[in-house]
Amino acid sequence: MASRGGTARRVPENDTTIAYVQADGLAVMKMVKHCHEEAASNMDIAQGALLGLVVDNRLEITNCFPFPKTPDESMDEDEYQLAMMRRLRRVNVDHFHVGWYQSADVGNFLSSPLLESQYHYQTSIEESVVVIYDTQKSSRGFLTLKAYRLTPQAIELYKEGEFTPEALLKLKVGYENLFTEVPIVIKNSALTNIMMSELAELVPEEEGSKFLDLGTASVLETQLRCLMDRVDELNQEAIKFNRYQQLLSRQQQEKHRYMQKRAQENSARAAKDEAPLPEEDISKLFRPHPVPPRLNPMLIAGQINTYSQHIAQFCSQSLAKLYITQGLQNAKEINSSP
Predict the structure, then answer these.
(1) Range 136-141 contact pairs with CB under 8 angstroms and sequence separation of 24 or more
(2) Is the pTM higher than 0.85?
(3) Which residues are listed as membrane-spanning (predicted)?
(4) Are 45 and 102 a contacting pair, CB within 8 Å?
(5) For the chain, which residues score pLDDT lower than 50?
């Protein structure tokens, strides 16, 4: 998982709000290339460091480099990142660490390792963001690049390290307010825009216009399978929590019966002018059961919500395409009939 090493330019204490993220086209293309290469080779998650600087309330991403993928455990990721930034500094490239990026597939980026990594980044590099690139959706023609930051409630929750139901209720933390999305814009130089305009004129007219593609079964099937897996995981977490509640209720009943029996024995001894039984530590006799952490179920619920939103959006678009193609087919049949 991403580490948090590196030198960063900090914003002043009274101005820590990042209004939006501005990414250079070159940095975006590097991220896209790295993520698709990892997805095509071994279906692994691609991760890398983001470099840039902070200008007023704007976070500029001007460069990036991937984290090493090597089985050699002797390599220190922090040392690798520092060495990369030193070399970039020598060639006059922005070398301030402003966050990291990760590839994702629809909603599976929401996980405990990502939360932990972003917590370390944001507590050491105040203005840092995590950029999520969706390889599957982008491969179908929809560039999906989103930047996220942890909310103050999520940082406080992780700082305390208590993921019990009481802690979640106290801080009012749910999967809806774990992350806050920061708007991201892509900016190219004037020369790059001129070149892209010339390239657009070279693209054949029939290319890039297949908006009525009805081959959506594979995408919908993949998302439904992922949704079913997440629902099964959430069901297992619910079973664990229900079992904990049953054990807690049974322990409370046993404790109540023990205290009643103890009171009756002391009353009987008092009636015989005997000394009461010595006080015993109830907490040692009835040790509390460990509360199952609620962080993982909350993250799974967030993944289910993301998959559901994508499926609803995807199905609505597919239905619209079906109705449009049905109208076109009916018009074609009417025109072709004598």
Answers:
(1) 136/105, 136/106, 136/219, 136/222, 137/106, 138/32, 139/36, 140/219
(2) no
(3) none
(4) yes
(5) 4-15
